[in-house]
Design brief:
Number of strands: 28
Strand order of the largest sheet: 8-9-16-17-18-19-20-21
Shape: globular
Strand content: 15-25%
Structural class: alpha/beta
Radius of gyration: 27 Å
Number of helices: 20
Largest sheet: 8 strands, parallel, barrel
Distance between the termini: 54 Å
Length: 622
Amino acid sequence: MFFPSLPRFVGLLATGLLGSSLAQAQLTEMPVQSLGLVPLPREVKAYTATYALPQKISVYARSADEKDVANLLKEMLIPLGKTVSLTTTSQGAQIRLTTATGTTGPEGYQLVVDQAGIRITAAGGPGLFYGTQTLLQLLPPKPAATAKVPYVRITDQPAFRWRGTHLDVCRHIFPVSFLKKYIDFLAAYKLNTFHWHLTDDQGWRIEIKKYPKLTQISAFRKETLIGAQQQMKTPADFKYDGTPYGGFYTQEQIREVVAYARQRYITVVPEIEMPGHSVAILAAYPELACKPGPYETLTKWGVSEDIVCPTEPTFRFFEDVLTEVCALFPGQYVHIGGDEAPKERWKESAAVQEIMKREGITDVEKVQGWFNTRIEKFLQAKGKKLLGWDEILDGGISPSATIMSWRGEKGGIEAACRGNDVVMTPGGFLYLDAGQNPRPHSPYEPLMIGGYLPLSKVYSYNPLPAELTPEQQKHILGPQANLWTEYITTPQKAEYMLFPRLLAVSEVAWTPAAKKNYADFLPRLGQHFARLDARRINYRIPEPLGLDSASMVKQGNRAVFTLRSLVPGAEIRYTLDGKMPDETTDRYTKPLQVPLNRQITVRAVTLAPNGRKSPPVELLVK
């Protein structure tokens, strides 16, 4: 039997969490993996006995935090066919939510299920909420009159305080309804930060009352590039759709999304790009440029040499904008971008040369550091912290600035060594707009930016670089996955790129690296496809595993492949004649035996229970 440490044991006893049934009964343990929990909690004991949760449920909650979480749980149980009432009397309640000091950290919780019912204890609202999310994973994904909940004892808390995701709404904008659906998913998997990329060259997406032309002009582009820009070699290759595109979020909508996220213990971090990625601003306010206009909101992707000039009118503009932004977002961080800001226009500018002379700056790159310092002081006066991409290191930063390391880990390591806080988001591990197919620009995948970032690589990431000392590692706030949307035009395509990889991100962010195991993760992940279906999420169906050179076993003059699917209840269909597998081709029922020395292309797909099909996995067997 598992027992907590003595101080925790006393706390549990005081709150009634050590029910006599679970504390005294001799129960049969079962594998934790069978619970299918993602992310994996720190300490779990599971038993074969179950508690029958009826259709009508009473939830005990007394404090404000307890009642807030109970109301959210009530909402989340409705799709499972449950009728929930709240009570301030613990007697007879099937679920009891209790706040208690000295249990776990601010986001930690303890969950016990036994014959006395379900009890969740935490220091406050965040921990209680995460405990309910674990409970929901113990319930069936579809409505049932009586749900059998396995007896468990779970003590859990996150590995990192920043567990982030990002969404670019500038290249393509997404409706508020999708943002809420996205936030619901983040909350369900214990991610607590939503980085909202609101401004860029291709569109300005936030209403600013003092500058109406931002939503009249900057929020729209006349047309959009067609196809993959990285494959275009000459000007003649660039073709456009001729269709105006744009939109923005009103301040009322911003408040709605922020409040929705906050209710689910998610902080929304706004990003207002400066000084680069600012062509959309110049389209509306060309007087902020170093070089006379006119300008127009960009219709293609990439980096522009046209950026705002670091003059007093530009500072007034951004201070006015940030005043409104700070009022809309109660979180402590404001992201100022700071990436990909070419200095050609600044080198040519007499105004910038005068600034350098006046401020004693000899390198134009350092002008951006001076610019950022002024912006940071303004933000600090508003009670905010400055956050920026790792390029802001190049111009110099203050000890209070926070770095988001995206060009690998180098910037994050440098910043942590200096004593700056860091969010780790290296493109090679956490940029989820990268492809999921090893074949570049596969015809079986939707149009995307390219690259190859499989589920296994996402899961392998450890946000704590070995190059840092334990003391320096304390500056690593946590990881963040990003989704850039140059080629992601709809919510359905966003979901395809995000899932299931975002479940791997949740475990990278929540579970200590020492407890992570990819082979253990995969079967737990498999139990979540039905949950994604219940949420109507358009996840990418994983290809069959086992059709690769490393998995091949030679038996005489044949190559033998043992295939399996990550999706429970799925079929695997295959072909040996070069055709595309579908529901009419051969069904995999036993290891494939493929003749050697005959140049045979083997293809296989997963046919999921929901009727959807994976992209093919293929191998040329020589």
